[in-house]
Records
---
Amino acid sequence: MGGIAAAVEAYRSSPTPNVILLEAGQHAEDILTGLDQLAEVCDAGTRVIVVGRVNDVTLYRELTRRGVSDYLIAPIGTIDVVRSICGLFSAPDAKPVGRIIAVVGAKGGVGASTVAHNVAWAIARDLALDSVVADLDLAFGTAGLDYNQDPPQGIADAVFSPDRIDTAFIDRLLEDTRREQKVRTVFGRVRPIPDIQSRNANLRGFAERTAVNTPLQGTAADLIKLAMIRIDEEIRKRGLKSRMTLQVHDELVFEVPESEVEAMKPLVREHMEQAYPLVVPLVADIGIGRNWRDLEY
């Protein structure tokens, strides 16, 4: 969401995925300008698919010259996206490592899951081949029941758990860190990680944990400092008697006269939540109390 500008901002300090799908604007010049900006933060090997509304062979040639993998002209359907992505990774001369068999029901309750499960079971039993079942019926999938299994996590858990660990992100981040021996926050602040290639397992493990932690907590530290500067400036500008007294990680503690409480609440919330425009919104909770221990949120 957010188009090319949001993609540039999101990947400025984060590894880019294997494929980026972008919906571009109406004008060819805007598309090319945005792609040039994206190219500055895009990792080598990342494929880019652009969806636009300009039907122009000259634009298509310019996009391919700049490294765009495919250009789709809107309106498009789901199958168009699937076909485009599959085409990026097809290797006709490569030896097949497996097949995908899709079982799709016309509506819920017609037994598509049961058919899929039995096909997978028959392949494994009769052909002695490994088979993997992915039941995409998130609400009523019965794979666990049919196979008498109680898996710790299903597809629904992965899809609807925004706080889950993105292993692909971590792998790509560590790969980049091993190559550059440094990591960056969203704001470009660099932290050297020289021990990422160390032969000492303890040093290497600590370096890997630091590499994963820095883009997250390092960016959080940058954000809180921006908020502190702007809040202090606004307090002085308004001539308030309130004072910022303490920072504890991502929390700020203020001494506020009772007469200024209602003025300080929106002031602090605004500058903490809008410290920097990010794709993921920042949310600040305000607590009020006689002392830090007794704050009520």
---
Amino acid sequence: MGFGTRDSGLGAHTLARSRTYVAVYGALMVATAVTVGASALHLTMLATAGVALAIAATKASLVAAYFMHLKWETRIVRGAVALALFLFVALMGLVVASAADQVGTVL
């Protein structure tokens, strides 16, 4: 196969990757439907928030792993993303604790 031919030799790989993207997209749509369904349940506010956050974390993980290609990155890149996520969660925890202290409620 010379220069300018249509087949680059990656046909099977591209097809497999496309199927993976479609499967992840389907999983994201199912998770969205589950989120909507969970909001229709009459759970406590804390339980609803917990379910919604768990589903959102799952969806974010899927997007990061497949659409942002973190699944195929090196260990150092994944470590940098994990560190950023940890720092984000820690800072948000401090914000929530500070807000709860201002209101006078206990977490």
